[in-house]
Fold this sequence. Notes:
By secondary structure, the protein is mostly helical. It contains three helices and two strands; from the N terminus they run ααββα. The protein has a two-stranded antiparallel sheet with strand order 1-2. Strand 1 and strand 2 form a beta hairpin. The mean pLDDT is 82.
Amino acid sequence: MTLVDFFLLLVVAGIIGSLGQAIGGYSSSGCAMSIVIGFVGAIIGRQLHVALGLPEWIPVKVGGHTFPMVWSIVGAALMVVVLRVIMGRRGRVG
Length: 94
């Protein structure tokens, strides 16, 4: 993976995390937390995609790895909802 691929992966993870937070109805404090939520959401979404045999919608290929964007966003939203339940409505993620 090249440096450009790494930065592109950070951008994609940031977008996934931001969309997941918007769907989950919770916001974090900053871009770094959005990237972390995006990475974890991509892992959760990929596991859902494989375990349930779901179709791969809008795949994005970065550095030789393919990410199912839709399921990554769903995974990020699920993670945000779980964090919202754990942290409470008044708590902040990050």
